[in-house]
Design goal:
The chain is of the alpha/beta class and about 950 residues long. The chain folds into six domains: about 25-235, P-loop containing nucleotide triphosphate hydrolases (Rossmann fold, 3-Layer(aba) Sandwich); about 245-405, Rossmann fold, CATH 3.40.50; about 420-490, Arc Repressor Mutant, subunit A (Orthogonal Bundle); about 500-555, SH3 type barrels, CATH 2.30.30; about 630-805, no CATH class; about 825-960, no CATH class. The protein has a seven-stranded parallel sheet with strand order 3-4-2-5-6-1-7, sandwiched between helices. It has a six-stranded parallel sheet with strand order 8-13-12-9-11-10, sandwiched between helices. The protein has a five-stranded mixed sheet with strand order 18-17-21-20-19. The protein is globular and about 95 Å long. GO terms for molecular function: ATP binding; ATP hydrolysis activity; catalytic activity, acting on DNA; DNA binding; helicase activity. This is DEAD/DEAH box helicase.
Length: about 950
């Protein structure tokens, strides 16, 4: 199919009569009379563009992928030909005629109502089946199958194993997969593709229809959908109907006043004020942010201003989400703050403007989000990106330009996941009772993500499952059989989403559900007395019930506090976007170094980019004071700058390549110097904290001397001791049946994870954990190509023994806007009370016999050993028994040597500073070195002391994932 031009949108999926002007009604003419009459009754006068292009090939029975934005009638595009065929067939049907598979946990109510209307009008039974469907309804569906069943990928897995449902599924002629772009990049989608191949075993081939947001490689997504059986692609050009502007608000006098009222920085106050003003200009505005934390932080500020803006994200209680969806749709809310969950087509009525706060990081994100806005008169999707600092601004400008030009990222299909193979081997055994191993292999490899799965990999997975008593393997007969553990394993692993605990948050006063918190936040940060933000409101934790996984809270008024930390990594900025930012720096930087005024350079940029001159000038701030003698890092120049222990590799390669290079640099520099190297990355920098005996030349040597062919092996070695790999191994082990009933809480035991790593290192479990991290977080091939370019001279590397504004301007430099310089007094009091109540181990390093665990408030000003009188007392966290064991060990390994050194540094601080040192050491993530910095800083009062502790704790919370 040729790409379709964008001339039409109903303004709502399958909406009323506001179709494309002059649209060709011949597409509807291919449908039967019953459907055409219903169309007329429904108010469809002309087809929308995707309907005009896609309905004819769908009526002809072709596999079709429809790529179009939300609000263009995609659901009806797919379902009208399917419903038409079901009404026109003369053959009796005893089973399910069509499956509609959606990744949404709860089918959006608008879609359900529309499909049920069509079913009623055409005398077809349309039903929904998902995790919340009652047993009675499930039984009814098995005994009397509907004509159309709407379901999820996970429920399809369960249906394939039921005897009555297998009979019902054998009649399936059509499968529609909604949001197929979302499934293509996940293990959920990989699992679904094998499920569809298992369905082929029952129903023979069937028509496959995919509905997708804009992607860079629709043909590849089509192959994912069909198992490479052939697929017509109908793609609507979104860029030409996009009106996006990028703005970085200037600080006004009103913002200075608001900053005090909102307890925040003037810059953040200017963003809140600008968004509030934008919302007031339009009838209905979606405000997208990249994280749930930021949604909560912005929501709390809008609440302070009495702005008519709701908050919506996945960690809110279902009732709360439905309430704000309905309020927004009814026009009772002017704006709705939301995250990526709102990209998946949840119906909230007509949207006439979308605001994206901070760069959307990816072109696909911008298109999906701004594409939700559709103006009924001129069919244009209008959006504003509000940026916060130079990197953010240049990045947003690059993304907006790419969106208009159709330069969209490809879908990164989740190929070859071995835990999905394990899951589906068990599924096939459940389907057939016993099955030849090679038949199972053939079915698996028909699915596109497993087309390259080798027989050796398959056999290793089978043996692992057999060893874990999930299936029975008759080696001589090449046969897989069901055993007692198969059923339990399969139904405990219907979903490929990792099983991590979430804690319910309950309001102690009303008993109502507030939302959920990720277990890692609860374990690492949450204690009674802590304050955090959720649903735009402040809550103080009163109790944590770990057995019931409930956090009880009470509402508070003050606006200081921690923002909840949920599962979910930062949206990675792609290589192409980062490269364009580097190119922009190079063009502007050279002009500015030659004396051109920033105003004229900025005006020149507005000819190509969607920002005004003032906004572009914000993007160029790091270059305006740039030393004319210093090299500028660009798309083809890497700058390594170095001062003291701070080494920054300025590299415009995006998140994944920089993460890979950063791991390589930190591992090899650490090995060369014999010391650990701290690392933090963003799309434009690799920031390293190196030992004093390291230099910029050492980093250059790594880039120039490392064999690109060895990158994968070196990165895997660097992962060996990383918590991220240990956590991933535990998750994957569960999916292989090697670890029963694992939840995230068990992962907090470092020694337990170490033992698990040792036990599974030479198994497909370990291989899959490494593969998944390499796929999701790193880019080995991209990093190897960077090394090749450096070594060939295609990529220039410059050294500088100084810091530059670009090197100092990392993304983290713009992340402190949510907290005031001086935390609210009640927060400081909470920190003080919490630390005073914390228990610490006191351990005498002189006699090594005396050890006591005490609350900080009960520790003397000058601790000493009651047995030997020594003041050489180490203050250790209560879980640090291994440190005591390390000190006492007669022969020490490297880790024990580090622990012992840590204990002696702690004792030295306590001996010199007494209880003040104990308090600093009791803070989260504050070791002896940082404790010494806190203690030695001159300050006016004790509150300042606790403010410094709070800053260190927040810094640790932000950067802890970068430290192994």
């Amino acid at each position: 199919m040729t790409d379709a031009g964008a001339t039409g949108d109903t303004g709502a999926a399958g909406g009323s009569g506001d179709g494309a002007e002059g649209g060709d009604p011949s597409a509807f003419a291919t449908l039967g009379s019953a459907v055409r009459e219903a169309l007329s009754e429904r108010g469809f006068t002309t087809p929308t563009e995707p309907q005009r292009e896609a309905v004819p090939p769908l009526v002809d029975g072709e596999n079709v992928l429809v790529v179009a934005p939300t609000g263009t009638g995609k659901t009806e595009t797919a379902m009208l030909p399917v419903l038409d065929e079901l009404t026109r067939t003369d053959e009796p049907r005893f089973g399910i005629g069509a499956l509609y598979i959606t990744p949404l946990r709860a089918l959006n109510r608008d879609m359900r109502e529309r499909l049920e209307w069509w079913g009623d009008r055409l005398d077809l039974d349309v039903q929904v089946r998902h995790g919340d469907t009652t047993d009675y309804q499930r039984q009814k569906q098995a005994n009397d199958p509907p004509d159309v069943l709407v379901t999820t990928p996970e429920t399809l897995q369960a249906m394939l194993t039921g005897s009555k449902l297998r009979t019902a599924l054998s009649d399936v002629d059509h499968v529609v997969v909604d949001e197929v772009h979302e499934l293509a990049v996940s293990k959920r989608g990989a699992q679904m593709t094998v499920g569809l191949e298992r369905l082929v075993e029952l129903a023979d081939d069937f028509q496959r229809i995919g509905l997708s947001a804009t992607v860079g490689d629709p043909a590849e997504v089509g192959r994912f959908l069909t198992g490479d059986r052939g697929c017509s692609v109908v793609e609507i050009d979104v860029g030409s109907r996009l009106d996006v502007r990028v703005r970085s608000p200037a600080i006004t006098d009103e913002d200075e006043r608001l900053a005090g009222e909102l307890m925040t920085e003037p810059e953040f106050a200017s963003h809140v004020r600008y968004i509030r003003d934008q919302v007031s200009e339009y009838e209905s505005t979606l405000i997208f942010v990249n994280t749930r934390q930021l949604a909560e932080a912005l929501g709390s500020r809008f609440k302070e201003l009495d702005a008519n803006v709701g908050v919506h994200h996945g960690s809110l209680a279902k009732e709360s989400r439905i309430e704000v969806e309905d309020d927004f749709k009814a026009g009772e809310l002017d704006g709705l703050l939301c995250t990526s969950s709102m990209e998946l087509g949840i119906d909230v009525g007509h949207v006439d403007h979308v605001i994206q706060y901070n760069s959307p990081r990816q072109v696909t994100r911008l298109l999906q989000r701004v594409g939700r806005a559709g103006h009924r008169r001129d069919q244009v999707s209008r959006g504003t990106v509000v940026t916060t600092h130079p990197d953010d601004t240049l990045e947003a400008l690059a993304i907006a330009r790419k969106a208009r030009s159709g330069e969209v990222e490809s879908a990164d299909i989740h190929d070859g996941s071995l835990d999905t193979v394990a899951n589906q081997i068990a599924g096939l055994v459940m389907d057939f009772g016993d099955i030849r191993a090679m038949r199972a292999y053939d079915i698996l490899t028909r699915a596109y993500p497993f087309r390259d799965l080798s027989e050796a990999e398959f056999k290793s997975v089978v043996r692992e499952l057999a060893g874990n008593k999930v299936v029975w393997l008759e080696e001589g007969l090449d046969e897989l059989q069901k055993r007692r553990g198969t059923w339990q394993y399969f139904y405990h692993n219907l979903s490929m989403i990792p099983d991590e605990a979430t804690y319910s948050v309950e309001d102690v006063a009303s008993g109502r559900d507030v939302g959920t918190l990720d277990e890692r936040f609860v374990v690492n940060f949450a204690t009674p007395g802590e304050i955090f933000i959720q649903r735009g409101e402040m809550w103080r934790i009163t109790e944590i019930d770990e057995d019931e996984e409930v956090v009880t809270v009470s509402p508070v008024e003050d606006p200081g506090g921690e923002v909840p930390s949920w599962t979910g990594s930062e949206i990675p900025v792609p290589y192409a976007v980062a490269q364009e930012v580097g190119e922009m720096r190079g063009i502007a930087g050279r002009q500015l170094q030659q004396g051109a005024p920033v105003e004229s350079v900025a005006r020149e940029f507005t000819a190509r980019y969607d920002g005004d001159a003032d906004t572009v000038a914000v993007g160029l701030e790091q270059l305006t004071d740039y030393d004319t003698d210093h090299p500028i890092p660009t798309d083809d120049t890497v700058l390594i700058e170095f001062r003291g222990r701070e080494l920054v590799v300025n590299a415009a390669f995006g998140h994944k390549i920089n993460e890979t290079l950063g791991r390589l640099l930190s591992a090899l520099l650490g090995q060369a110097t014999g010391s650990s190297v701290g690392m933090e990355i963003d799309p434009y920098r690799i920031e390293l904290e190196v030992p004093r005996n390291a230099s910029a030349t050492d980093a250059l040597d790594v880039l120039e001397d490392t064999d690109p062919d060895h990158v994968a092996d070196l990165v895997e070695l660097s992962l060996k001791n990383a918590d991220s790999l240990k956590f991933k191994v535990a998750q994957v082990a569960t999916k292989f049946g090697a670890l029963k009933g694992w939840r995230g809480r068990g992962s907090s035991n470092r020694f337990g994870r170490d033992r698990l790593m040792d036990a599974l290192e030479d198994t497909p479990v370990y291989d899959e954990a490494v593969r998944e991290i390499l796929h999701e977080e790193l880019d080995v091939d991209g990093a190897a190509e960077v090394l090749e370019r450096v070594q060939s001279g295609d990529l220039s590397v410059e050294l500088l023994g100084d810091r530059t504004p670009i090197g100092l301007g990392g993304r983290s430099a713009g992340q402190e806007l949510l907290s005031p310089d001086h935390a609210d007094a009640s927060v400081i009091q909470t920190v003080r009370e919490r630390i005073q109540s914390d228990r610490m181990i006191l351990f005498c390093l002189h006699c090594q016999d005396w050890k006591r665990k005490k609350p900080v408030k009960r520790i003397r000003d000058r601790p000493e050993c009651p047995d030997c009188g020594s003041t050489r007392i180490a203050a250790l966290n209560p879980w640090a028994d291994e440190v005591v064991s390390a000190v006492k060990a007669s022969e020490k390994d490297d880790e024990q040597e580090k622990q012992t050194e840590r204990a002696y540094k702690s004792a030295s601080l306590v001996q010199s500073h007494g209880k003040r040192a104990v308090i600093a050491l009791a803070a989260r993530g504050v070791g002896p070195r940082n404790a010494a910095r806190i203690i030695n800083k001159l300050r006016e009062d004790e509150d300042e002391f606790y403010r410094d502790i709070l800053r260190r704790e927040r810094e640790y919370a932000r950067t802890r994932s970068f430290w192994d």
